[in-house]
Amino acid sequence: MSLPGSQHAMGTDGSDYQHRERIAPQYRLSAETKSRLRMLIYLHFLLGLLVFAHLLTYHVPFLTSFSVPRPHFWEYIWLISIIPAVCGLLSMNKNHVFLMKIFFRGIVTFGLGTILTTIILNLSELFTFKKLKTNHQLEEVEPQTFLGLPLLVLWYIFLIITVQIHAFSLYMANILLHSWQQYKTSKQH
Description:
The chain is mainly α. The protein has helices at about 25-60, 75-80, 80-90, 95-120, 125-135, 140, 150-189; strands at about 145, 150. The radius of gyration is 25 Å and the shape is elongated.
């Protein structure tokens, strides 16, 4: 790097940059993927905080002044997915393949599996809600509401956002696993 006001070296026109070192594509991909996965894990933590706050306001006696609906069983199971998320966050510091595999399997089992099962099992309720709303019979049933909004619709918004976060997290974790395992095998040979 030259100082301001200094002259270029004789015989160069500025096109001699090909000799400079560049970051290898696999390392650049790994760094970009790590930052994206970190963001997704932090969003997972934020959603976990929302679910935990819901459970806390329902179960703690002095917080029951809020009108909070009863928690579903899937919320308790889904909160277990926070543990693999911590493993995923820790795995990125030194490219720990084992911790990333725990993250991958834990998110598939406790995160995405729980959410997809919940969506499928409660889909008939959503269709019933839609049918009653189009027939203008919704007032007769009085669906559960939270802050004036139908609770079923709010849950499905939460579930769809969670599916997207988990799916993108698994995609990023898969990219990292492949690049780390490729690096480990080439390093051993």
